Amino acid sequence: MDPIILIIFLALVGYALASAKMVNQGNVALVERLGRYHRKLNPGLSFIVPIIDQIVMENTTREQLLDIKPQNVITKDGIYLEVDAIVYWRIQDIEKSFYAIDDLEQSLANIATTTLRENIAQNSLEDTNMSRDQIDRTILSVLNSITVTWGVEITRLDIQSITPPETVRRSMEEQQNAQIKKRAAILAAEGEEEAAVKRAKGTKTSIEIISEALRSHPESKDILRYLVAQDYVDASEKLGASNNAKIVFVDPANSTEMFQELISDSVQENHIKNPGNGNGNGNGAN
Length: 286
What we know:
Residues 18-176 form the Band domain. The chain is an alpha+beta fold. It is built from 8 helices and 8 strands. It has helices at residues 3-19, 94-99, 104-121, 125-130, 132-147, 166-216, 221-241, 252-273; strands spanning 20-23, 27-33, 36-41, 44-47, 53-60, 64-74, 80-91, 152-163. The strands form 3 sheets. A 3-stranded antiparallel sheet has the order 3-2-5. It is elongated. The chain starts with a helix and ends in a 13-residue tail after the last helix. The model is unreliable at 278-286 (pLDDT under 50).
């Protein structure tokens, strides 16, 4: 083979190898020609002009993670907190990300840290704990308004932990326990009140039924006296079985008059409420 032809062949092979550039999927490359921006290379095989063209940057367009180191922040009410967060971001415009900012990742870390501290400093400790999602959205909006000029989108910001001093943590735990006990006491009181109302309604209904029965059937008074006396005996036995009970003895004669007066009052009250339903026997019963 002619040496000149061999040299030309080798030169063409070397040129082809030097001009061929492979960009992996998910990446974008930036090409300069004679020191000025020329074009960007998308994933796949591309060709450039050796010596004249130069790849100055190749970066991923996939979402990336930036870990914000724990920061000491003072809240609006003067509480020192240690805040830890992570930022998810991706390159939207590789040209801006290279030419608009010098050190992209360091700049993102600095602006995220500053914005995080400023936002938490505007809130109290309670607001910071209760409105963490709102704080995340607020910081995300502020960051994107700045990084858009860098060709970068902040996709998500998560505050991982908010750590107050030990004394504040103990105080928060005590306050939470007090709130739990308060809610339990309120529920118990509401339950007792509801039960008392139901018992009172049941007693009222029972008295009305008994009064109606006595008004309609005066001869049933003796049965009622027997039932009341039986309940009195049962109650006395229960009181006697209790170690802390105090037994009060009632004169049977007086108790009979008391029961009779109670029955008579109940019948009269029911008759006043229902004057049209009587048969004239209720007022004369003994």
